[in-house]
Amino acid sequence: MPDSLLLNPAALSRALTRIAHEIVERNESGGDVVLVGVQTGGVHLARRLAQTLGDLWGQSVPCGTLDVSMHRDDLAHQPAPTVHPTQIPGDITGRTVVLVDDVLFSGRTTRAALDALSDFGRPRRVQLAVLVDRGHRDLPIKADFVGKNIPTRANERINVKLKESDGEDGVWLVKNGSPA
Predict the structure, then answer these.
(1) Got the DSSP string for 48-77?
(2) What angle (nearest 5°) sits at the alpha carbon of residue 130, between those of residues 155 and 174?
(3) At what angle do helices 43-57 and 9-26 cross, to 10 degrees?
(4) Of 70, 79, 6, 75, which is closest to residue 39 (Cα–Cα)?
(5) CA 131 to CA 147: how far, in whole Å?
(6) What is the pLDDT along the chain (180 residues), one digit of tens a residue?
(7) Which end of the chain is more exposed for a tag (fewer CB within 10 A), N or C?
(8) Nearest-CA neighbor of 139 among 128, 124, 147, 149?
(9) Cα 21 to the center of its chain, rounded Å
(10) Is-contact 82 109, C-beta < 8 A?
(11) What are 171's strand-pairing partners?
């Protein structure tokens, strides 16, 4: 069965713009906000959000990356993880960190991100922004900012492609795939 297009490039852009406006509404000052993209799916999304937020606030928004590979609770069930760079833009202690990821599913990646983030300081608060929330939570985690809620079956996958890495923008539903 062919993949179903859920968000075309224009819809994906609108979702990110909406998330940026919601971040501005929930955070009085852009000077306290740091965006951190979860490797690998959230990195380019965080950079796009940082650009949009910089335009809205009239000041640059620090943006970094966070690898959660070694903080996952399923390390024993997988081959050796591929570790990506972590680059936290300065001290996050006392700041608002917005974790950015592409898809929220079980909540386990977010839990690992929270664990990894604690290695770099103690933020005043952490908010979660995701492009797609597909449900099926194993942990009590809820995103603060969601581009689109897309209920799925457990055996389906959401495939997010971004022009920065894949040459195209879009979100597809992959039927009968293994859960991501």
Answers:
(1) HHHHHHHHHHTS---EEEE--GGG-TTGGG
(2) 25
(3) 60
(4) 70
(5) 4
(6) 568 999 999 999 999 999 999 999 999 888 999 999 999 899 999 999 999 999 999 999 999 999 998 876 665 566 766 777 889 999 999 999 999 999 999 999 999 999 999 999 999 999 999 999 999 999 999 999 999 999 999 899 999 999 998 889 999 999 875 444
(7) N
(8) 128
(9) 16
(10) no
(11) 7, 160
Length of the chain: 180
What single DSSP character describes residue 87?
B
Tell me how far apart the alpha carbons of residues 111 and 131 are, in angstroms, rounded to a whole number: 17
Q: What does the alpha-carbon distance between residue 28 and residue 25 come to, in Å, rounded to a whole number?
A: 7
Alpha carbons within 13 A on the beta-carbon side of 88: 20
For the record, the structure tokens of 5 come out as 């297009």
The structural domains of the chain, ordered by start, are: 12-22+32-67+91-152 (3.40.50.2020)
* Distance (Å, whole) CA 38 – CA 108: 12
Q: Walk across the sheet containing 4-7 and list its strands.
A: 4-7, 170-174, 157-161
